[in-house]
Design a protein that fits this description.
homodimer, 336 residues, 434 Repressor (Amino-terminal Domain), Rossmann fold, 3 domains, six-stranded parallel sheet, six-stranded mixed sheet, 12 helices, elongated, DNA-binding
Chain lengths: 336, 336
DNA sequence: AACCAAAATGGGAACGTTCCCAGTTTGTTT
DNA sequence: AAACAAACTGGGAACGTTCCCATTTTGGTT
């Protein structure tokens, strides 16, 4: 049977220390310095012998703030997301906040549910990597005074700060690198850009820039229902005369494409391969896959500090966009 | 300026619906059925127009239970951990619980801090993948009536359930597979087993079984300060006469070893390579790396259901060990 | 129609904390 | 030594909910 010796409370500590609950409360809050050193040690001792832990639920209830931030992640199994979570967590802890992470598995239904949950826990700020477009819900949350930050994906009709990669710059850097290396036609592979603004931005920049610069560019929108092996094979065959490269819109695509290259025996390098998002294995695939690494730590920290600014009333006049530059990691896969 | 229109409460809903707070409380709790259908719809309407969200802090305070589970992860950037987190999250949600995940980055200091935090949030159960050996703290938590489950790593002098891979079986399966494939000497590569029981169990089983079965086995304890390239080169040279294989204790080691193989030009297959933990890229490294995949979903679910059993007083008479069998994924790296 | 059990509803205390304000002590100035 | 300001301490209400128990309503029997 569980011992259910209920948790010790503020009042018990106060009793043992021979003081009032107010003083004990002060001791554990930001006003500790107002207490006499003598009283401080007395409280510290009492709390120690009783093993007292403040009950954050009670604190959160009485207006004291929950000291919690909430984070919604579209796909926790994506290494990029994990890296950002890691950055956010560190930044949050450094500012005395804790983080509740919820994973939506790219399901708008779960996203709704989790948003309800997070606001029920009275989080003081929300970092959102959206799966769907829950404008209505988010607008309601914002109206209730909870600051929001969007991560990587914008949401229409919601004027919140968006933090993420500088997508246009990333595409430009990729194109520049690939052209420099001597590739003369580029196939851009992406998932359906319908519901993720970052995908849209990248795709749009790609078509725009290839047109402007007169580069021979094609796009391939991946679709689970179809087999893209044929397309890739054809592209690779054409590479023999004029070298072509495949540019992958994100880490997942890089994985998919690498699989196809290997299964079809397409040589990496002669047909170029490059991806947005850095992954642990990119250096291991012979001859190494060139990537644009996202500065995940910076992104995580920017998200938190943006939130804290809003919390402290230093809100920007208008919702800002933080665009972070990628880092080019050159490897053998982009040498024809 | 923030609108700070404070959240609507139970009482406002009750007022609008022309009923009492008790009834509204019942509506949102497990006793909804006790209410007249007419009352139910009236409350539902009122709650809807006001956009009411129950305040879980208040609920948690008044003994109602926080409906929160806490999870401590030693390294969130380890794909294995993420996969387990995913399983735990799904199982928790299915039972109406939410999950706070804290990452300790393998730092006992952070572990302590996070444990304090989690118990301050009144979590109803704790799933712990330990970094250090915080027996004292965990014992205190257990005494206060919060059920515990250990994940992958045991903690001395704490009689809690441990859930994880069947390490002995995993080693046995690996040895059997490697011998069958014709390897005649095996190098077991692991990180220091000092503070992780799973590593100890695997290492111990390896030395024991190689001795018992008369297999030529060596162990290599990785150490950041040293360069193990020499050892590997020597091992590979000997493989020419009698084929040898490297068995990696976990996913990280597999990554490290693969790097060394590639940098040193050691052929994978002639010198075997096999790892515990399945990773996305293992099939991509030519000729594919053989692995023992952990059943991460099963492990996550087992952890949650073990916790819920304890919560419902169905506590096992003695702390149990759940050992889950791995799945052998054969690829080209173990064909001499 | 009167009665009674069962079901439905509501009032109030309690959960553990913070914060306001009042009361007490300390220290400095005349 | 008196007076006053400043620093420190403490009592009580409030936060939004749940749960106990009392009260009211319902519906079935005699």
């Amino acid at each position: 049977m569980p011992v259910t010796s209920s948790r010790t409370t503020l009042i018990e500590v106060a009793k043992l220390a021979g003081t009032s609950k107010t003083s004990v409360s002060r001791f554990f809050g930001p006003e500790r310095e107002r207490l006499t050193p003598k009283l401080q040690t007395r409280i510290a001792e009492a709390a120690n012998t009783l093993g007292y832990q403040p009950n954050l639920m009670a604190r959160g209830l009485k207006g004291g703030g929950s000291r919690l931030l909430g984070m919604l992640v579209a796909d926790i199994r994506n290494p990029f997301s994990v890296a950002v979570v890691h950055g956010v967590e560190q930044a949050a802890r450094a500012s005395g906040y804790s983080l509740i992470v919820c994973n939506t598995d790219n399901d708008p239904k779960q996203e709704q549910q989790h948003l309800r949950l997070l606001s029920a826990y009275q989080v003081e700020g929300l970092i959102i990597n959206a799966s769907g477009q829950p404008e209505a819900q988010l607008q309601a949350i914002r109206r209730s005074g909870v600051p929001l930050v969007l991560l990587d994906r914008d949401i229409h009709q919601l004027d919140a700060a968006v933090i993420g990669l500088d997508n246009a710059l990333a595409i430009d850097m990729a194109l520049e690198h690939l052209m420099e290396q001597g590739y003369r036609s580029i196939l851009y592979a992406s998932e359906s850009p319908d519901y993720a603004s970052a995908r849209q931005e990248r795709l749009q920049r790609f078509t725009q820039q290839t047109a402007t610069l007169g580069i021979n560019g094609q796009t391939l929108i991946l679709n689970n229902a179809l087999d893209h092996t044929q397309t890739l094979n054809a592209f690779a065959r054409r590479s023999v005369s004029a070298p072509g490269a495949v540019l992958c819109a994100n880490g997942n695509i890089t994985l998919t494409m690498t699989r196809i290259f290997q299964k079809q025996g397409i040589a990496i390098g002669p047909t170029g391969l490059m991806g947005i998002d850095e992954l642990a294995w990119c250096e291991l695939i012979t001859p190494g896959i060139t990537t644009l690494a996202q500065p995940t730590n910076d992104i995580g920290q920017a998200a938190v500090s943006c939130l804290l600014n809003q919390l402290n009333g230093l809100a920007q006049t208008s919702p800002t966009r933080h665009r972070h530059a990628p880092r080019l990691q050159v490897r053998g896969s982009t040498t024809p």
